[in-house]
Each structure stands twice: as C-alpha cells, then as structure tokens.
Amino acid sequence: MVWAPDAPTRAGGPATLSQLQTLRLLDTGPRGLTEAQAEARLLERGENTIPAQRPVSWPRRLARSLRDPFTMTLLALGLVSAAITSWGTAGVIVLLVAASCLLRSNGEFRADRSTAALRRLVATTATVRRRSRDGGEPREREIPVDQLVPGDVIKLGPGDLVPADVRLLRAAGLTVHQAALTGESAPVPKRARDLPEGDDHLCWQGSSVASGSALAVVTATGGGTLFAGAHHAPARGRSAFDQSVNGISWILVRLMLVIPPVALVAGAVLRGKGLEALPFAVAVAVGLTPEMLPVVVTTALARGAALLAHRGVIVKRLPALHDVGAIDVLCMDKTGTLTRDRPVLSASVGPGGAPDPEVLRWAAVNSFWTLHLTDPPIPDPLDEAILECAPDLGGTEGLEATPFDPAQRLSRAVVRDGGANVVVVKGAVEAVLGRCAMSPGDRLRAGEVARALAEAGARVLAVAVADQHADQHAEHSADQHAEHSAGHSAGHSPGDPVAEGGLRLTGFLTLVDEPSPDAAAALALLARRGIALKVLTGDHPATAARTCRELGLDVGAVIEAADLTPAAAERATVIARCTPDDKARVVRVLREAGHTVGFLGDGVNDSPAMRAADVGICPRAAVDVTRETADVVLAGKDLSAIDHAIVAGRRSTGNIVTYLRIALSSNLGNVIAMLAAGLALPFLPMLPVQVLLQNVCFDVAQLAFAFDRAAPAVLRGPFGLRPRGILGFIAGFGALNAGVDLATFTVLTQVVGVVDERSFHTGWFIENLLTQAVIMLLLRPVAPVSPPLWLAAGSLAAIALLLPLSPLAAPVGLTALSVTSCLWLALVAVLYGGVLAVLNRRRQL
To answer: Is residue 622 part of a domain?
Structure first.
C-alpha cells in the first residue's frame, strides 16, 4: 500500500483502525522505516516542528499601528488640512501620528523579541527504530525530534516527552501526564489495544511518560499534531480596549462632522464669509481632537510594560495592558496554576472510616519496595507523597515488587515481615476491593466510605495485605520474569491471593493536590481588587472545590461544563469536567454578558480559552503554543505577578482616562466658546495659527499625564476606558470651561475694554493656556501631583505670559497686554481653579 501524506488526519485514520491497518495505512511496520523512506517523507512532510509565528517586519508593524481608530481620525484631519493648504496643521498631525506609531511599534518589537527568547523545543531527541535498507535488521538510535516522520517507530520510557502524535503498538505499565493537553491532573493509563476503545491507545505530542514503557508508531508530526492545532483556533475578535477606543472615536468623529459645518454656516450667515472661514472651521475641528491621544496612550502603556519587564512580566501586545487593568472576571485552570502538580497525603483511615496509621505503614511498605526493587527512572508522585509521611517501616525486607499496572490498576510488593512473607497491594478502590475476601455487606460499607472520601475532593487509594507461602513466592517470581519478557500482563499463579481474592482490606489513603504556596494570598489580593475568580478544570467537581476551599476561595456554586448556561456561568466559581472547547465557551459566555475576561493557563488545552478571552495570561514555563497565544507572559507560576500586571494596567489606563477627560472637556469648552464669540465679534476670536499653536502647547504638556501618579480609587477595582462615563464627564466640565471662556470674553470686552483684534486674540490666548494649566492640576483624580505634571503646567503658564512679550509674538498675531489686563486674566484663572477644586473633590467622594 502506498503511504498517504494526509493519512493521520483522515476520518477513519489511526484513531479508529487496528494496529495492522494503521501500519498498512502509514506504509510501515514494527521494524520501522528505512533511512531512504524517512528521508523522502521528511522532504515531503517537512520537519517535526510547531509552526511558529513569523516575525513581523517593521513596515508591517508600522502599517498595523495606523489601523488605530484615533490615528485614522487624525490622518483624515491631516488630509483635510492639506487640501485647504493649512500646512502647519497638517505637518503637526503627521508628526504626532509618526511619533505614536514609532513608539507602539518599538514597544511591540521589544515584547516579541523577549517572547522569542522564551521558545523551547517540546523535546530534544527521540529513540527511533530504523533500517539501513529493505530487509535489513532494525537499529535503535537517538535522533533530533524534528527529524521524525509519520511511520517512524519509536520507544518511550519514564520521563520521556512524547515527541509527536503516536499510536501504541506495545505498552507495559504505561501512564502518561497529559494535563497540558486535557487538564487531567493525574497520570492517565495507556494501553496498546489492537482494536481501539476510546483514545487510551493514543499519545499526543506535549504529554510525558510518567511510568512504564512503550513501542509506538508516529501518526502525525509538525502542524498535523493535536499540540499544534491550538494555532488554528479562532481569533478572539475585538478586545475590551478595541471596543472602548472605537466607542470614543465615533464620539469624536460625530462631533467633528458637526462643528465645521456649523462654523461655516455661522460665518456665511452672520458675517458674509463662507469659504474664507474654512481654515478656521478646520482649526476648530482639530482643536476638538485630542491629537496627542495616540502618543499618550502608547507612552502610558509602554511605560507600564517597561516597569513590568523589570519584574519579569512580558506584555506582548500593548493594548493588552489596558485589558488586564479592566479585567473583572479572571478564569484560570487548576492544575499547575492553583496547585503544584504534586499530591500530598491527607488521611489514613480504616475500612470503617476511622483514622488508622497502620494503613499508611503498609502503603509505605508497598511504595518503598516498589521504588527500590523496580528502580523506575522517575518515581511515581503518589509513592513519593506516601513516603514523605511514612512511619518506621519496622525492618521489613523486600522480596519482589510489581509497579503500578494500568490494566489491573494496582501495584504489588512481597516483603518479609516478622519471619512471614506478606503481599502488600495498593491501587484503585474498585480493583483492590474486588480482590478482597469480604462479605457483601462489608464490601458495600467499605465502598460507601471510599465514595464519601472521594466526594470530599480527595484521590482515594485502597490498601490490602495477605500472607504468602514460600512456594507461592517462587511461582510468582517465575511469572514475573515471563511477564517482563513478553512485555504484557501474564496473570498470576494458582494460589496467589491477589488473583484469587484472598486479600484483607486494611483501609484507605486519601491524597489531594498540593496548593501552590503563594496562591491563597494572591487569590485574596485579586478578590480585594474587585476581580471575580472562576476555576475551569477538567477534574472532578469535588476535587476542584476542595482545592479552592483550601486556598480560602469562596466556592459558591459548583457546576459541570455540561450544565453551563449564562446564568450558571455568572454564579459559579468552579466549572468542572471542562474540555478545551468548554473553557472557551465559558469565556465567550462571560464576555457576551458584558464582562472583561482574562484567562490564566499553561497548557495546550488552555489555548482556545486564551484566544476567546479579552486577554490571555500564562507563566513563562507554559508550553510553547500557549506562550505564542498569550498576551501577557508571567515570570513564573507566582500568581502575585498577575497583581503587578493588574496594577500596572489600571495605572496606565487611569492616566489615559485622565488625559481624555481633561483634553476633551477643555477642547470642547474652547470650541463652544469660540463659536459663540465668533457670532458676537466682527472678527474671528482666534486666528487658525493661534488655535494650532495653542493646541500644540497644550498637547505637548499633556504628555506628562503618561507619567502621572495613580489615584487610590483607580487601583481599587476594574478600570477601563468607558465611553459613556467619559462623555458625561466632558459634557459637564466642557460646559463649565465654555462658561469660563465666555467670562474671559466679557472681561476683555467689558471690563478691560479691549476692542482691537490683536489684543483680543492675545488676551484669549493667555487665558486659554492659563486655564488649561489649572485644569491639568485640578481636574485630575485627587492624588499627589507628579513632578513631570508640575513642570508641564508651569511651562504652560510661562508660555502664556512670556510669548506675547517675545519676538515670536508678531508672526503669530499676538501683542503685549497691560499689567491690568494680565491681572484680570489671572483672577479669572484663580477663581476657575477654586471652583474646579471643589467640584472635582465632590465628584470623587
């Protein structure tokens, strides 16, 4: 049969065929491929590597930055300005857009470079069986995993990472850790079934061998593996940051579409000027736009990302920092996140459920001699947990041992204790109870005790013993030798108490997953930050709930993924028995309910949920595919690093919101006042060049907001860009600012008696810069003012007072004012500052 390149992925492929059919489909055999066949397939299929994201070039990165809605709005205004030959306005806009794009591109380039440094190979080498030619004898040798091809026959042993998707041909005591793929915290037994039942005859790339050995045929490599399939998960769509930015952008676009026509119509109707007022109308529209917004946003986020980088936290996508600060629901996996992937002993009880240390002693005897007589490369974590709490073993002598057998679901040791041979067995409750000599009533009662222990969230092992005669020991030793030679279970000799149900139940051990040492404090801190925590796991509901309770998490409702509804997702803290698709579905349901959702995970099974969330978070030790998917990569599995990222995100977003509120309310007030004054005056209240100069001064000063301190209120709860809240703020304070500008108009015309155009322009220019300096200090959240902000506000005031006295005054249409006029303008600014301070403090109380 000719080998088909797409065979591993077809319906009816190796997952459902017999061993012989699979080997024929892959055009191979138990002796492996020839070197020529392997080379040809490598050329055809490519190397066995995970498809990595291509590095984004600088031109493409810059072009991607231009898609930002604010940037596109500014570019549209720049084009209009250029069309009416307002080159100064167009030049300033182009300069701001270029600065913003360069800052954002540079920040994302640094993040990509840091992430690339974290990439690791899933495995380095594999033991493959190949032949030099047809008919030649197979040789086993180590080759790099990227040279594996479908049809290769490989050997697996304890501690090996599975280098590709494989189908088992032969297995002895094989258990596999596949938590990174399926979320199952316990090792999963695997069997080399000839006719498949379920998927226990398959192992996937990214899993690792916990115990036993196997011979397997490679069915898929590279991009065809389940491990690589996470790369093809659907994109998350618009994040919380994108939605907020789009909302604010449309508010600005609507205002800018309304204001220029109003200015033009007013000029044409009241003063007989139509197109002559077009430069002023465009200048007014530009005056409404927060030109520095892309620069401020990028600088604030880049600064937050840089501070996090010093703590080992990498922000791969700058807008993700805003989304981290806006998270109000954080979903996380349990295995490897809340727990340390290591079980600990929690109880030792007799058949009736009463504490009994003798059960632990016999279990420790079994674990000790199983480890010492079989000498596995990697000890079983359950055996290690038992021995950590083991008492004195009382001078027992190990005679023989059989490690955990996935088919029989138990391990066995024969020891000499006090002159007698004793068989000690531990394993799954059903497997051990079925081999015990018990009455039906006693068996039922013992089963109920074990079931109650399991429902409390523990992993339960049964322990049983039996006396063995010397001849039985000799017969069993011979059977063991035959079983080892055959590579499969050979059964037990006649008279064996394990085989004939002659065991005596001593009791049960319970083990639980060891919580991460920092998890409890970190979860409590996240709860105080106003974040709802939800645990999405593939484990049993009781197991997950117990872990959460031990960490001090308010468990609330516990549901299974099969029972998921929008209402249940809202109230549940633990959602158990989740597949990767279930986790993504939970995230989507929560986002559709209006939440900003983050997902923390480290396995391939977490990738779909990360893509579905507003922001994906993973530790540095996560698998390669998951690191590629995540937006934020933590220094380690220390959950406190998430709090650092949340604080940085809220601080950056708080500074952006402060800038937006102040810039838009000030700009709106100025625009309203200029339009109103334009209707009352026989000349333009300000020249286009003066409007542009004022905007440039104010915009450059406002860059200081990116370096401002965060108010305590900003850090208390989820904080993001909320278009409605910002619109309400700018409407109220914009009207107040317009009133102050009109009061300035009254002072200039009625009190000071300014009547000439140049003096009026100068007075209004001075007053606008003074009030904007006041706004920067007093309209922000109540918190200590940072030095950069003091410097920026002071510079604005200095420019307002000194520019009309400088040689630059005449080119821009300004002139020196009298001392009296300046004092009156200063008084208006002081009174305005007092009103702002009172209103702003009341608003925040």
So the answer is: yes
